[in-house]
Design a protein that fits this description.
β4 and β5 form a beta hairpin. The longest helix is centred in the C-terminal third of the chain and has 73 residues. The chain has five helices and five strands. The relative contact order is 0.08. By secondary structure, it is α+β, with helices and mostly antiparallel strands. The protein has a five-stranded antiparallel beta sheet with strand order 1-5-4-3-2, with helices on one face.
């Protein structure tokens, strides 16, 4: 059995003449920007591509929208977009950034770019680490406040249920007292009638 030549090994590594290697194709893909008609094998692959594109260009991503199938509840459409300028506390300006990509799932299972908006309404940043930390810290505080609010809502619901139960017990107790008072009143009335009857007999 003949051993493969060095040239053969090199050709296997770089591909046939005139054909790009796997590594070269992957590099070119990573350097691309989204465009309509671009497809991916899965939603995660599409999201990872857009996240990498955002990191390279200089912005952070967020989920804008999603749509589920009425048949089985699986996600069939996903909108991803820009989170806005780093450090910008204006929610209105953040939400007004129209840079986004719309992904839709085809019947074959592939995900296709149906819409892509490139332009941002704010400067892009070259280094996102500090920006990401600021936004992550803000998100962490929001999550903490949200969790605290949920706890307070659950406590409020529990207190309301206890109050309703107490009020019902009070109403039931008042109902029993009213029945007893009415019974005593009827008994006294009957006794008075019997007394009057005895006096008439005398």
């Amino acid at each position: 059995m003949d051993n493969p030549s060095v040239g053969g090994l090199i050709q296997q590594a770089v591909g046939a003449p005139g054909e790009p290697s796997t590594e070269q194709t992957q590099l070119e893909t990573n350097q691309q920007e989204p465009h309509e008609g671009m497809f991916f094998e899965s939603e995660q692959e599409a999201k990872s591509f857009y996240d990498e594109y955002a990191r390279r260009v200089g912005f952070l991503t967020r989920v804008l929208s999603s749509r589920k199938s009425e048949r089985d509840g699986s996600v069939i459409s996903r909108g991803l977009g820009c989170r806005g300028a780093c450090g910008n506390r204006s929610k209105g300006q953040r939400e007004s950034c129209l840079a986004m990509v719309l992904l839709k799932k085809e019947k074959q299972g592939r995900w296709v770019v149906r819409k892509f908006v490139r332009d941002h309404n704010h400067p892009l940043v070259a280094h996102l680490l500090k920006c990401r930390r600021k936004l992550d810290e803000k998100d962490r505080k929001i999550q903490e406040l949200t969790a605290e609010l949920r706890i307070k809502k659950r406590l409020s619901t529990a207190y309301r249920e206890q109050l309703n139960t107490f009020m019902k017990d009070v109403e039931d107790h008042n109902g029993h007292l009213s029945a007893k008072v009415q019974l005593v009143f009827d008994n006294l009335k009957q006794l008075e009638a019997e007394r009057q009857e005895l006096l008439h007999r005398k």
